[in-house]
Every structure is written in structure tokens, then in C-alpha cells.
User: Fold these one by one.
Assistant:
Number 1:
Amino acid sequence: MTTTVLPAASGFGAVVTGLDLSRPLPAATLAAVKAAFAAHAVLSFPGQPLDLDGQETFTRQFGDFGEDPFIKPLPGRPHILELRRAADETAPNFGAGWHSDWSFQPHPPAATILHGKIIPPVGGDTLFADCAAAYEALSPAFRRLCDGLTALHSARLPYGRDGVYANETARRTMEIVTGEAAEAVQAHPLVRIHPVTGRRALYCSPVYTIGIDGMSRDEGYAILGHLFRHAVEARFQFRHRWAPDTLLMWDNRVTLHFAEGGYDGHLRVMHRTTVAGEAVIGTDLGE
Ligand code: SIN
């Protein structure tokens, strides 16, 4: 089988074919996949009918499992979350806000791997934003401002005592745990340097970033509000359309993602694992 990497026209996102992910990849193939991942940030592998063991084995080729708080994992599979939305659910679909996974952690996950199990006939796409391209498109003066800032991240808006999930009344299949643990605040550089490519990227999201260190709420949101809108402009986006058995892998260090709805009345089931990441490295002031 010939392995092919077909990038999107922008270079952000690529489709990889010609691999059998149910078995550990040979070293050279794994290196090629890692290189494609660094180059394109979102990789989709269609036609990969993996079971739970297969997804765990694939994930572990990229590092340790990440820690997934606030959502009950599959029984007996502490590292696999099932993102399930029943056909009759009316609660908003999980992930329907731009974010980078678990950015409130001291070492947020480097990658997330999502396997499409049951795909609705309409809707349910996953959108990605290229936060390196978004950073590079800022004016030099605004880039310099952002380079010197530290952002504050927290899980409190979705998962806190008074967060979105704590207040919802509609039934949800996924078991989400809200409360005190989500109130913690974690500081990260607003602009992070990718540990593999060295590229700079905006690292903030409307779901998890709650302010800028040393600034008032209004000052912080004046900057963040601009970045939240700018980073997800259509010119930085990649849209992934699902088919059953597609495995999708994205780099949380350089992307935001958004789970689109539009499939009320249809079941959607995905299995999600994460790869542990490193401390967020920022830029030097005025560099
Ligand atoms: C997520 O991980 O945020 C959900 C993505 C999706 O279900 O498409």
C-alpha cells in the first residue's frame, strides 16, 4: 500500500490514506505521520475500523495518554471518552464552542484523537482554526503586544459551580461532572511556540480563556475579544466532514476546534483519546 498525504489547499489539514492503523506503524511510517502532523496540524485517516484497543494503541504511539477531567470515561477504559448524543437529545452538542482541549491544565494535551463510530447523515462537522496563521496575520505591533502577555485559563465557564453544564436542564447522555475543581486558574503565554516546528501561535479561546494577567477584566477582554474573532475567521478555518471509521487527529498547540451541530434527530457517537503535552513555552518580551 502506498501512503499518501493530501493537504488542504491552505496546507492546514490533510487526509492520509494507504495506512492500516489497526496495527502499530513501522518506525519510518510513524515518523512520516509525525512529520505530516507537524506540517498540517489536522490529519484525517478515512477507512480505519478501529476497536477500543486499536485506538489506544494508535494513541500511545504519539506519547502517554492525557488526563481527561470532568467527563466520565467508558467503563474499564479510563482514557477513552465516548462523545455520544442521542437522536432525541435537545441539549447543545458537546464541544460547540471554539477551544483547544483542556488548555486550563498545566500541561495541556498535545493532541486529540477522535474516531467516528456513528455519524449522522447531516451536520456534525468539526471545524478547526489555524492559530499560527492567525498569529502571523496580525499586525507586527499587535503581535509584539501579544508576545508579552500571559493569558488566564480555567474550566469554570463550562464546568464550574455555576458553569454552563451545572445549569443545564435538558437531558444529556454524556456524564459531565461539574464543581469546585473547575474553578482553578492556570496561566499560559498568550503566544506559544510549537515545540516541534518552532512556529508561534495564538493560545486562547472563548471557552477556556478568562482574562489577561495583570489587566482588568475589560482590558483583557478588549484584547481577547479581538483575538477570539480574528483566530476563527473563515480564512483560517478547515472543515472536517465525517464518515464512519474515520480517525481524526489534531494538534491542540496550534489549533482551535468547534463541534458543529445540525444533526438533531440523529445519533452521533465518537471515541476520543488525548496525548499528553508539555509545558506551554512562550516568546520573550520584545523578541
Ligand atoms: C470535541 O472534542 O471538542 C468534540 C469534537 C467533535 O465532536 O466533533
Note: The chain has a mean pLDDT of 97.
Number 2:
Amino acid sequence: MSDASQIDLHRRPRRNRFSPAIRALTTETSLGINDLICPLFVKDGNDAPSEVVSMPGVFRYNIPDLVNEAGQLAALGIKAIAIFPYTNPSLKTPRGEEALNPGGLIPRAVQAIKKHFPGLLVITDVALDPYTGHGHDGVLNEQGYVDNDLTVKILGEMAVLLAQAGADVVAPSDMMDGRVRAIRKSLDREGLVNTAILAYSVKFASAFYGPFRDAVGSAQAAGTHLLDKKTYQMNPANRREALLEAQLDEEEGADILMVKPAGPYLDIIREVRNQTTLPIAAYQVSGEYAQIHAAARLGWLDLELTAFESLLSIKRAGADMVLTYFSKQIAQKIRG
Ligand code: PBG
């Protein structure tokens, strides 16, 4: 039966979108609970959880509440959490010595979580910014420049301490040169051969970290939201340099490579995907989360649909796993 209104078309891609069933069969990318890593903030003391103003639904938890939250995430099927400290300002120093305190907040938090939920993968950040009064990720020299080699030595020690506390994965987020090799060597020297390194390989000097710095208090410490980390974090204009950073971390012994932020850098995720056989993580950072929440509050975007789409797009770009503050909500949505 010919219909006079039909145009002469030999390809109709809409056929593969005709019904829910055909759309399901032709789906190329999926977002599952196994893809999610939930960042969590921990604070000392017994106070109730405090919400981060610029990150609705994200709280700083004391250790018992953190353990409880970790348990809820594990019950939803989430496999991994990444914990970050809100350090008491009185413990911050120019050199960030608190980072090497075996009785510090993060080692205690890791021990508590692993005691209750040994199967939940715990990732700890390796960088000095939560512990330095100036908020930089390393130690400054007289010129105010972050001293690479001195900082790398400290990071090696910090990684060992975190692994000994029970962290399954250490995640250097500092962007110093050579820190992955130094950390691997330090871990191996201590027999910590099964502690993995998730390297923040391609981390841009991004304005999207603003709300995170509120959460850990590193912005207040420095007196500005726009703390300038351009001498170590990457220039957002650079793609080839991203590949160099990824290649070096792979050679130095990283187990997983990370790109951060995620949404504004989908092309970088894809480029790294094409270069490496290693798993790739992407960090949907605080500012990406805050943007979606802000628009949803204004009634301009649907929160859950936008969050899901943003994460699916990060997977489609080539990420195997995503650190996202939406983890719990998305896991609940996926479970129905
Ligand atoms: C610092 C660190 C940052 C984030 C994770 N680790 C911020 C920064 O580099 O200043 C940002 C995460 C986020 O914005 O969600 N070591």
C-alpha cells in the first residue's frame, strides 16, 4: 500500500526508536549501580550532620554518622566511597603535618568504616589541601610556589599511612609530577602491594571546584573561592597535555586513571579512553552538582532526569566509573 504522503526515504533511523522494546535493544550505553562512587565528607566531634550550603543534600558527617551513611550506600549496592575530611582549622599548618597523623580524622574514619563494612571499597584522597592553612595541595617554598619534590615525599608517606589504616585505594589528587611512582614505591616497600592507585591524572584548574572547597573548608582558609592552582592543575585549554599526563601516570603505575571535572571535559575522557587500556574514572565535581541543583530549585530543570542524563553522558564518553554526589539518589532510582 503506497501512501501519497510518504517521501522517498531509504533510511529511517526512527524505526529503532519506535517502541520501548526496540529502544531497549538498541541502547549503547548504560548507567548502573556498579558505576557509582560516592564522595562523602567527614568531620570530627559529635555534632549532627551539617549540610554544605552550596551542595544541597550533601552533608559533613561525624564518624558514627558516616559509618551509618556508608552502610546505607552499601545496602543500595554501591561498591565504593571516597572520603574527604573537614579539618578543624586549628589543625591546619603551612606544611599540613596533620596529613601524617596516624590518629587523624581520615585514618579513624577508614578504620570505623572497614570494621563495619569490610566489603565496601574505601578510597582516600592523597593531597595536602585539607591540612594546609593556605589551602594549596602541597608545601610552598619562599616564593609561594608549590615545591614538587618535597610535596611528593610527603604524599608517599601519607599514602602508606592511609593504606595501613585500611584504605583499599589511594587517590592522589594533587597533580605533582612523579607522585604516582613515589606512592607505588612507598606502598610496595611496606608490603602494601594490593593497595590500588586511582590517579587524578587529568585534573584541570577548574572553577567548578568552588562548592567542594566550601565543604572541606579550604576556600575559607585561603580567603577566596577562586584559589589559584594553575601552577599544578592543568590549563582547561589543553587536550594534548591531558594525554601526556595520562600516559605518565600509566607508566608510573596507576591502576585507574581519572579525568576531572567530567561534564565539561567529555572530549578529554574520550581521548584518554582511546589512548589507554586502563579503567577510567571521571569525577562529576561539586560545581556540576550545584549547577543542576540550582536550576532544579528554580524549577528550570528536572533534577533526577538531568542528573541521570549527565551521568549517562559521562559513561558514553568512555568512563568506566563516576564519582558523583548524586550516587545515592541515582542508586535509589535505578533500584526503583
Ligand atoms: C583537592 C581536591 C579538590 C577536589 C577533590 N580533591 C578541589 C581542588 O583541587 O581544589 C574537588 C572535588 C569537587 O569539586 O567535587 N585535592
Note: The radius of gyration is 21 Å.
Number 3:
Amino acid sequence: MKKYLPLLILPLLLLVSCKKAAEGESSKTITVGFSQIGAESDWRKASTLSIKEEAKKRGIELKFSDAQQKQENQLKAIRAFIAQGVDVIALAPVVTTGWDDVLKEARAANIPVILIDRRVDVSEDGLYACYIGADCTEEGRKAGRWLIENVGKQAGIAELVGTVGSGPAVERKKGFEEAIKGEPGLKIIKSQSGDFTRSQGKEVMEQFLKSPERDQINVLYAHNDDMALGAIQAIEEAGKKPGKDIVIISCDGVKEIFRQILAGKANCTVECNPMVGPYLFDVVETYMRGETIPPRVIPHEDVFDAKNITQEVIDGRSY
Ligand code: GYE
């Protein structure tokens, strides 16, 4: 029995560390420090807005910091939040590694960290309290399955990868490769990062279309809609028809890609839900009430293509 004791105690410690003694603090304004990645995509802007609006609605004080896609800025922001003694820290981590030290500092200060939208790789359990975000590997699989079902078993694929070292870039690649691995006729012939931005998506697609393999490319898989939108421009400028000569599959589900799908210039988007404000502050308020918070929250997501996109659907979406 003795050798199992540490295994039994560890989960208990984790649960205890994620709970707060709420007595006597119910009337105090809750303060949350939020380190956001940047404003690199329409998805990101929607996520920022969702969090700001929800904090306002609930009367929660939000200290917002934009890291401009740089981890060093996020580390500084988290340390500042710790120094200010916020109740909770929310972090959308730009990359997966390099967080151990700062998360240990937050834990030593008894401030729980809630991860939003991207995961981290850490050396021990209990360094963050909860992770709210999509299953990006499954998003990659959905994109791969859509390709097989709608395009077939023969294609030359160009891949626009997200930010190097970020969770969604690694996972969307992995899931997609997993889904197509049984189909030897589906080949990824080009793969490069466009850093999740429209401008770099365009630039990298231009290079793909000048490469010796250019005539073999008939599918583009972009890890986000913004890079796909940049690529659409590059494809048109190269004299080809996006959505027809090159089938376009991406992830996120922002309004602009919906419009392009409706216009026949893009083909499929795998939704990734950026409206995380309500999920985040539900968890924050649960913690502040002294209740146990869930370790993982996965928002609901769909797949969209010409079969289910209408102008009404576009008008009904908030991002
Ligand atoms: O797909 C992309 C953004 O982390 C899931 O980051 C998020 C990704 C999203 O910039 O557009």
C-alpha cells in the first residue's frame, strides 16, 4: 500500500491548491491579470474582445497585457501581475515551453493560473489550475477527414503552419497528418510557417507558387483562416483560382473566411471557438467561491463548408 501513497496524495494536493478559502471575501472586486498573445489574427481579436466584454459585464477588474507575440513580454506581464497581487492570472501562452519558472513563482504567491486557448509543456503537474481551449489535434483530424471526403485520395498539399513552437501549430499538423496517413496519394509537398498572420500567409504562399513543385499543389491546408486569406490573394495574383485550382482548408471560422467560402474562393473551415470570456470567468468565479474548478474545459466547435454556410449564418456570427 505504502508505495501507492504518493499517487493518492498528489491529486488531493492538486485539488486543494486549486481551491480558495472564500470566507469573508464575497464583496471584494475580483482582479484578473490577463496576458494575451497579441492581435495577430481576427480570431485573436475576437478572443480579446470576448474576455474584455465578459469581465466588464461581471464587474471583474481586468488587467490586460498584449505581448505582441513575444514570450518575454508575457513573462514580464505575469511577474507584474504577481507583484500586484491579482486574484487570478489568465495566460494565453504563445509557445508551449519555457513557463516552468514563472508558473512556480505564481504558485509560490498562491495565485492560480488559468491557461486559455493554448497548452504548455511543463515539468510537473499542478503548475496551472485549468486549461480552457480547443482540442487542436482533433481540429487537424477534422481538416484531414474533410479533405478525404470532399476532394478524394489524390492531392499535392501545401501547408501553412502556425507560429513555430505553439500548441495549435504542433497539434493541427499532427492531427491532419494522422487523418491522411492511410492515403499514400495525399502528400504534403510544401510546409512552412506563416506565423498565423495574413501578411506572412501571403508571402509564404507566393514562395510556394514560385517553387519547382508549384504545379503539383492543388490543396492548401492553413493552420488558421488569416493565413488562408493571405494565401487567397497570393493565388489570385499568380493567376490561379483559389477554391477551384487550389482547394483551401483552414481552421478558426472567422467571418471573412465564411464570406470567401460563400464566394467559392475557399472551401472549408474547422471552427475554433475564440469566445472564451464566459468560460474563463465561470472558472474564476468558481475558484473565488472556494469551490473546486475543472482542470480542462473544451468549448464547442463545428466544421463549415459550402453545404452549411449561408448569408444568415454569417450575419448570426459575432466574429
Ligand atoms: O487559430 C489563430 C490564432 O491559439 C487557437 O491563434 C489559437 C490560434 C488561432 O492567432 O488564428
Note: The longest strand covers residues 186-193.
Number 4:
Amino acid sequence: MTIRLYNTLTRKLEEFKPLEPGKVGFYSCGPTVYHYTHLGNLRTFLHNDFLKRMFLANGYDVRHIMNITDVGHLTNDEDDSGEDKMEKGAARENKSVWDIAKFYKGEFLRDFNDLNMLPPTVMPHATDYIAEQIELVQKLQDLGYTYEIPGDGIYYDTSKFAAYGALTGGSLSGNRAGARVGFNDAKRNPTDFALWKFSPTETKRQMEWDSPWGIGFPGWHAECSAMSMKLLGNHFDIHTGGEDLSRVHHANEIAQSEPITGAPWVNTWLHYSFLLDKSGEKMAKSKGEFLGMDALRKRGYDPMVYRYVVAMGHYQSQLAFSWETMDAAANGYMNLVRRVADLLKSDVGTHDESAYNTWHDKMLAAMSDNLKTSSVLVFVQDIVKSGELNPATKIALFEFVDRLLGLQFIDRAKKLVALESETAPAEIVALAESRVAAKANKDWATADALRTQIDTAGWTILDGKDGYKLVKKS
Ligand code: AMP
Ligand code: ZN
């Protein structure tokens, strides 16, 4: 099937052509593990997951690399100043940097797993690829792209790379990101960036390594160039990240890599739009206040509800997070789960291959057309409502939707069926019966109080035309 993706580099929706037929290699900038991963980061990772599932559904052999940043990402990464985010996290919690990395990576993996994301083929840590990063800087030095700022580090001279900033249509003079006051005034061009930072002389860093330029640590951008080339080769198909990365981080990655590999280093660049917080701004770890999976767990949401929220949007549009959106999505998702549960309980009939193929192809075409996840969800509603499709075919289609969107409809529906088959204990039934009596007496306050009591005891009471039903809560 034809695959089309929006390539930031060409600013066009393009037909995807793999470097090797039937195979796709892609690299995604992963989390900096100095704090909990927030819902914005997770939105970006969910889009990677949709991308990967789309390729798998098209029969591709997928090689996906996503790094773990555990060194070198400075609080002010646009001009290579400020503190190392990892060292800052360690100071905040009075732990070693290594412990911070281990703890937050573990938390990240838990979220990743709860959201049913497929594990990357390799998840390299920046600190395991220091030799490769030093080698990268050495090559750039040999090619004449670097200079030293004494007492600071080895810098990349962006004026030596004619195509600098081409990814976002920027130019050397137009990008004033680095034109701030501070010792980076020593940079030759505002866009120049650190390849290797020297350790401070007055304090000892927890993470530092020896190098041809002295003791220090790699600049943040170096890791992604070094690790992607090592694990995917000198040319690969796709590089992804949140929209904040295109102008500086990815521009710098290209500048570091193309002198070594030759252009084009990466064929397609995919950037995902932000998740916004309640004030309409980018959700950001550095702001200190952000929502992570824990906030959702505490409020009792199934992680699939957040996945559903993300799937209802499109990666090229920003998404405003709100609890109202979560509640609406929870209803929408649960309604679908209930419909699937009904299908599982029904007399399923025989699978209709031709009808299956028609809907399968429609959904795959939507997904392959620039990852239109929300269009897949519209088809899902059509499938549920269809009077022509029998339950067996509908169930098979939901199995496909689960592979494509990872929403675990079948799994949740099976759990619901199991819960529904549990009979409520006598004391819960007694409460339900009292509620029936209260309703008959139009004593709504008592009826509501009894519903709350039943709910708190772990049961949901569902009213229908033939009376109530008690369902155990998951
Ligand atoms: P970080 O852990 O900050 O290095 O970011 C990990 C990934 O999340 C990167 O691809 C970022 O571009 C992305 N990201 C950061 N903030 C947001 C946000 N508010 N919405 C979507 N993606 C984000
Ligand atoms: Zn990166």
C-alpha cells in the first residue's frame, strides 16, 4: 500500500520510499531521564508507536532505535549554558546521577508499557556510547569543522556547513538562538554548538570522561548522531521527534552527520506537534509542574483512554489537554469496549473474508496516508454500527484495529465479560434493592447515596429497561 508522510525537510507530503525494499529504519529522540516523563513526551512516543504499527501492518521489517538521554542535556540547550539536567535532577533529590537515571528510566518504561507501546529494537543510553561520540567529534575536527573555546569546550562552526538550518528553512544569520550574553559570546556564530564540554575546574562532575581534549562530557546533540549512525548506518529512512527539536537539536544533528556521511543522511524527518497544558503552553518538564501517567492512574483512568485521546488527534496538530477531554474519551472508549464485549458474548457466526478485507484495507489506507489515526476511529464506529457485518467479522476487524492502534479493545472487552460474569455478594444486592425502593418513592437523594455506596464497594450499577445490573469494577 502507498505510504505518505509529511517530511519537514521538503515541507511536503511525500510518498515514502524505503532505502531497502520491505525494510524501514527509524530513529526517535527519546526521554531525558532526570524527571518523570510527562503526557506531552508520551504523546510524542505514542505517535512513534503509531508510525511503527503502520509499517508493521504494511508488512515492513522495522528497525526502531530510541535513545535514553542520561548525560549532556543542559537546562539551556539552545546556547550550551546552564546546568546538566541530569546533575540538576540528582541535586534536587540528593541522589547520584546514575541512580536518578536508573529510577526515571524505570518509571518511563512502566508508562511506556502501560500505554502498550511496542518496545524499540534497541534503546541505547548516551553514556554507553561515549567512545562513538568522541570519535564523531574527532572526525569533525579532522574535517575542519571545530574550534575550541578555552575553559568551555569544543564547538562546531556552523558557518562551515552551507546547508545549516535547511531542515526548518532557517539560515545562519536568521537563527539568533544562541545570541545571548554569557561566555558563549565567545562563539564564532550564534548557531554554533558544543560538541564536547570541559568539566569545570572548581567542581567535580559525577559523569565525566577523558577525551583527546581533556576531561569532560559530550554535548547533547552528539549522542543522537553517533548512536543513530552506529545502529542504523550512515543513511537511514526516518528520524522523529517533537516539534521543539527541529530548529536546533535536529539542525545540529544534521550539521554533525552530513560532513561525515554525505547528504542526505536521513530521508524523512517527522515532527510531532505539542501537547499543551491548561494555560495553552507546551507541557514541559522544566516548568516543574506537569502531568504524567501517575496523575491519570490516581484519577482511575485506564491508560488506553489517553492513547485514545492521542489517536483522536493528528500528529501535525497541537492538542490541548483537559480533564473534560479525558472524560469524553473515557466514555467513548468504554462504549466501544462494551460493544466488543457484546460481540464476544454473541453467537459470532462465520468470518466473512471479503467484507473483512474491504474494511481492513480502508483502515490501513487511512493509517498509511500520513497516519490518520482519527479516520481509523471513524471507521471503527462504522464497523460497530454496521448491520451487514456479522460478529465474527467485526471481532476480526477489532483484532486488526488493536494491532494498528494498540488500543487493546479485545483485551479490555474480555476483562469486562469476565467481570460481568461475577455475581454480586448479598450485601451489594441488598443495597441495590434498597435503591430500587428509594427510586420508587422518588427519594432521589437516598438513591444517589446508595449508588455511591455501591460504587465505593467496587461495583457499578447499570440501569436498563429490564431493571438494574451489577458489574464488578476493574
Ligand atoms: P525530553 O525528555 O524533554 O528530551 O523529550 C522527549 C521527547 O518529547 C522529545 O521528542 C520532545 O520533542 C518531546 N516533547 C517534549 N515536550 C513535549 C510536548 N509538550 N508535547 C509533545 N512532545 C513533547
Ligand atoms: Zn535527539
Note: The chain has 15 helices and 16 strands.
